[in-house]
Amino acid sequence: MSNKHDEQFERETQNARIINGKQSKPGAWPWQVSLQLLHPKLGFVGHWCGGVLLNGLNGDYWVLTAAHCISNDAFNFPFSPLWTAVVGEHDRATEDGFEQRIMIEKIYLHERFKEYHHDIALMKLQKSESLQNATDRVRPICLPTEDDVDTFQGVRCIATGWGQSKKGNKLENILHQTELPVVDNSHCKQVYGTIYNIPINDYHLCAGPITDGASGTCVGDSGGPLQCNLLDGRWYLAGITSFGSGCAKPGFPDVFTRITYYLPWIRGKLRLGGDGFHDV
């Protein structure tokens, strides 16, 4: 990868965002999480990345997010006291009474995470009585059950986040959403491999416009969900936002961490309460 391309890619992927999306309705995505950071030197930064609320196996709750949100070129902060998960959030500028701020108990990055590969992490939430009773505004997402690479192709999939809605703007206060079709990984292999020399593997999921003239998007909040509506009417987690090529570039789909690939890793962590090693 040339220095020019490397610098361009780093610059364009610093701030993930939803481009040309629309505002979500309050409570539409009750598993959406805002991960807030307390920086050791800069103080309280606030919203840093998106995340997804999961049910544990022992009455506990977890947040699934992108590993690069926690460990990247700027910092390496896998320390639970620095992070807070905000659930029930819709408008970050106002308090409507549905928000819950929950501290993190433990953080687990994938053991093989490096740059654009195995970009997945789990955060175990501290016990909270308010989370025990699911509401319309706070509810864990369903995980897929089949390790089938074609499960989410041809169905309605939506990315959500508080990222920028226009290039150069500040983060959005209101949660936004944009519809992204899941496409074959060959499209991402061609463009990312050719231009950026980034290998696309089975653990990546490709979604977004693949032809010129399509309504382009940038990636939603890093770590946020790509959720798909399957035939049973439920929404399932297909991917978590990992990286993209830049804002609204037709022909450049966004790249997500493919959840079906990591089901053994996720379930292993949930089963052990996060303790122990379970790789894929």
Automatic annotation (TrEMBL):
Transmembrane segments: none annotated. InterPro entries: Peptidase_S1_PA (IPR009003), Peptidase_S1_PA_chymotrypsin (IPR043504), Peptidase_S1A (IPR001314), Trypsin_dom (IPR001254), TRYPSIN_HIS (IPR018114), TRYPSIN_SER (IPR033116). It comes from the Eukaryota. SMART domains: Tryp_SPc. Gene3D superfamilies: Trypsin-like serine proteases. GO terms for biological process: proteolysis. GO terms for molecular function: serine-type endopeptidase activity. Residues 18-271 form the Peptidase S1 domain. Keywords: Disulfide bond, Hydrolase, Protease, Serine protease. PANTHER family: ACROSIN-RELATED, HYALIN. This is Putative Chymotrypsin elastase family member 2A. It comes from Daphnia magna. The lineage of its organism: Eukaryota, Metazoa, Ecdysozoa, Arthropoda, Crustacea.
